[in-house]
Design goal:
This protein is α/β, with parallel strands linked by helices. It folds into two domains: 169 residues, Lyase, Ornithine Decarboxylase, Chain A, domain 1 (Beta Barrel); 243 residues, TIM Barrel, CATH 3.20.20.10. Helices cover 30% and strands 21% of the residues. Strands 1, 10, 11, 12, 13, 14, 15, 16 and 17 form a nine-stranded mixed β-sheet that branches. β2, α4 and β3 form a beta-alpha-beta unit. The longest helix is centred in the middle third of the chain and has 19 residues. It is elongated.
């Protein structure tokens, strides 16, 4: 046994689904898709996305709150997920249900993509900081809701609407926040006053807020503050009736026990070139996705004894918006990198076809830590575990997909694949680049037909 094999590595196996098990269990499928496009590929599961989205809507229904789920489009550019929202919104219109599904867009490109998929303008929520005139014009013409982030933006929007009566939410800056997003109390008062003075141009439907981090309690507390503000503003003659609690709802990538073992300061870790990171995304959370929304709506504040947020909304005739991105994409996609070869060091470095720019956690000076899965058409028998980090095929020393040394079940060979799980939320898109004139990995939709995977190129890739 070599020195390499005496290494120890805390495992962080990814959470999987029947879809991911079927797809990664078919090495010939991975080969056919990778060969078709000549490199790494992103594989998508829109069915999982639809199930996640319906689960969020079901939480609103169970809590007795009129709520709309807006997909945070910035989390993934694929058309497949936009198409899924269009289908859900259409089904609701056919059944006569309250509008429960839409898309949160923050650019003219995202707005147009949503329209091209059949999502109506009335089902779009326009967010982001000071928006360009092109985006505001689209919002006014298509009757989208605009989240206003500053008095200057509001004045520009009011002048642009010219009597078309644009629907707005104003973004409030939470107490003590240092965020660059949102308005102070004085700015909120200005916005409310302008809405009262220009009813032919502006309809104030409600308030939103932006919070960094993933605290359920902080979101619930800020929503309660806005319930109080709505009560005060209604006495002035305006009639806001909606609060958006935004996104930032956590998901889990790995099991609790593995995450705790990873964080244990006594745990054995080896990183390529002695690399270290100050922080990581919380890859495990006890309350995630739709369950986090349920907690925001239904949990009672044990310190103050305040009623659940759902009861406050019912008593004050207030509806809620939620804008998840990552949480709707939970386990709805994987990224496949062909192995080019292995560089024998102590420990080794696996070189893959692709770059770390397709795992965008690097953008935040941290690492996407769930273990990649090694897949080969012919699995070796009775081989020793193989310890290696994962490097890209570029000329940058820092271009590592995985700095941490991983214990693989056997030594990879050229023609095998490394699969990174649960990459649909932000990882695929946020930092992608055609560096070195390498193509950006395409997005491919994979469906299961009686358990057998079938694939097709995402519609957006044909634009």
């Amino acid at each position: 046994m070599t020195a390499v094999n005496r290494l120890r590595s805390v495992p962080l196996p990814p959470l999987t689904t029947p879809w991911t098990d079927a797809v990664t269990g078919d090495a010939r499928l991975l080969r056919s898709v990778s060969d078709a496009f000549g490199g790494p590929v992103h594989l998508l599961d829109p069915t999982r996305f639809t199930a996640n989205t319906k689960e969020f809507a079901g939480v609103f229904d169970d809590a007795g709150v009129a709520g709309t789920v807006y997909f945070g489009k910035k989390a993934n550019k694929a058309s497949a997920f936009v198409d899924a929202i269009a289908d859900l919104a259409t089904d609701d219109r056919r059944s006569g249900r309250h509008r429960r599904f839409g898309i949160d867009v923050a650019s003219a490109g995202e707005f147009r993509q949503a329209l091209s998929a059949g999502v109506r303008g009335t089902d779009l929520l326009v967010t982001g900081p000071h928006k360009p005139a092109e985006l505001l014009t689209l919002a006014v013409r298509h009757d989208a809701i605009v989240t206003v982030d500053s008095p200057t933006e509001l004045k520009a929007l009011a002048d642009l609407s010219r009597g078309l009566r644009v629907r707005i939410m104003v973004r409030a800056c939470p107490p003590g926040s240092t965020s660059r997003f949102g308005m102070t109390d004085d700015e909120l008062t200005f916005a409310e006053k302008l809405a009262a003075e220009r009813p032919g141009d502006i309809t104030l439907i409600g308030y939103s807020f932006h919070l960094s981090g993933y605290s359920i309690g902080d979101r619930r507390d800020q929503a309660r503050r806005l319930v109080d503000r709505i009560g005060e503003v209604r006495r002035s003659g305006l009639a806001p009736d909606t609060i958006s609690i935004g996104g930032g709802l956590p998901i889990s990538y790995v099991q609790q026990e593995h995450w705790q073992q990873f964080l244990d300061p006594r745990a054995p870790h080896t990183f390529h070139a002695g690399k270290s990171f100050d922080s990581y995304y919380p890859y495990y959370s006890a309350t995630t996705g739709a369950a986090a929304l349920r907690a925001i709506l239904t949990d009672t504040d044990t310190d103050s004894g305040a009623a659940p947020l759902a009861h406050l909304c019912q008593d004050n005739d207030i509806s809620l918006f939620v804008e998840p991105g990552r949480a709707l994409l939970d386990r709805a996609g994987i990224t496949v990198f062909p192995v080019l070869g292995v560089k024998d060091r102590n420990p080794a470095v696996i070189i893959v076809d692709g770059t770390s720019l397709s795992l965008s956690e690097q953008w935040f000076d941290t690492e996407f830590v769930p273990d990649p899965q090694l897949v080969a058409e012919h699995t070796p028998v009775d081989e020793l575990p193989f310890f290696a980090s994962v490097g890209a095929s570029t000329c940058l020393e820092s271009d590592m997909l995985t700095w941490r040394v991983i214990e693989f079940p056997y030594r990879p060979t050229t023609g095998s694949y490394l699969v990174y799980h649960n990459t649909a939320g932000y990882q695929m898109d946020s930092n992608e680049s055609a560096f070195h004139d390498m193509p950006i990995p395409p997005k491919v939709v994979v469906t299961l037909d009686d358990g057998h995977p079938r694939w097709t190129l995402d519609r957006r890739e044909n634009y």
